What we know:
This protein is mostly helical. Helices cover 45% and strands 11% of the residues. The strands form six sheets. It has a three-stranded antiparallel sheet with strand order 3-6-9. Helix 16 crosses helix 18. The protein is elongated, with a radius of gyration of 32 Å. The termini are far apart. The relative contact order is 0.09. The mean pLDDT is 94.
Amino acid sequence: MSNKIRTRFAPSPTGRMHVGNLRTALYEYLIAKHEGGDFILRIEDTDQERFVEGALDIIYRTMEKTGLSHDEGPDKDGGYGPYVQSERQKSGMYLEYAKQLVEKGEAYYCFCDKERLESLKQEVAGKEIVAYDKHCLHLSKEEVEANLVAGKPYVIRQNNPQEGTTTFVDDIYGEITVDNAELDDMILIKSDGYPTYNFANVIDDHLMNITHVVRGNEYISSSPKYQRLYDAFGWESPVYVHLPLITDENHKKLSKRSGHSSFEDLIEQGFVPEAVVNYIALLGWSPEDNTEIFTLEELIEKFDYRHINKSPSVFDMVKLRWMNGEYIKAMDNDRFYEMAMPYAKQVITKDLDLNTILDMVKTRIETFVDIPGHIDFFEELPEYDIAMYTHKKMKTNSENSLEVLKEVLPLLEAQEDFTVNATHDLIMKYVADKGIKNGQGLWPIRTAVSGKQMTPGGAFEIMEVLGKEESLNRIRKGIELLEKALA
Length: 487
């Protein structure tokens, strides 16, 4: 075995990438890169029934967007190819290895039909399971030969002992020992001639010199069976690193139905790829100094997989939104405009300065999806309740708001320059001359021009974007509403 660390990400092309799979990929990438090792992409497509058209593109696109670039894979041969299981399968290698195990008595041909397997079903703790009863283990060599010659369908099963124990070591969970009586004789080669995921995994990991096998801890129960395969072949087993479960806020496994279980879901919900990667890195691992914001380079440097937690990690949407907001604030303007523009255009069709509008919201949003709700009032004045003119802290009510609007209207009508500085100086002079507090003069104007309780910019910024004509129309509308209400 080489001393160089080699990890592999081996997704199945079955649809969008679940955040659990993305975290596995990220940790595999970080474990390898932290030690200057290689990160390999291998496609596990032996489950032909679950194959989804276009899913391969999703895998490549996700890897590219997250920055997890592989050193070897279907598109980058590093001498350990092919990197797609169905292509490896064509050479017949999996069947050859399974036959070696049959020779050693570590596996056997099984010719049982569906009906017989159905009859073995039993209920254990409310779950239906089929534990195979080793029926075909007792067939003689001659019977097996005759069945094969006759073309009888078969699978090849692992022959696990029913006495004794099997032990393997996980770098996070320590030494784990199970009773062999619990190990079923799992299928290695299916009736369609394809290897099962479990079997192909072991063969490929060995042949590709994978040093660290990283996966979710739901695989811990299968690991003794993998360990027995390594031992049966006389191969050195890899370092096992099992990752804690990711749960939703209710401590249930993060399911596809949660609406944010895949990388694509999150991107569609207005999250930035780097923020997602940063957040997912912290689902099960934390640095000693409790820093929270990391670039991928910083993660590579800091990531020590021995600090991975055993306890489940909660996928906390509030935390992810906060972190995403930090990434948006720190983003350079050109990239921000590029990513945010489609969201602005959802609600603004008028010829307004969208960059200026986006500047106003950059520090106020947590995801890009938040943008439309903040800025839609620029497109048209919403219907609003005149109760908004009444503000205790600003000392405003309907009466004095109406008075302010009626007094500033002619001043603004006479004003040519509607830039922020010009309207600011004009209104501030009015406030000073009148001897009122700033808020008392500004609150009614901002309410009239926006029709919103909360706005991303102040009255002057909003009027500059709207321009003179639209600003005046909105102030006239405010006067009209207040007069009607006070009549």
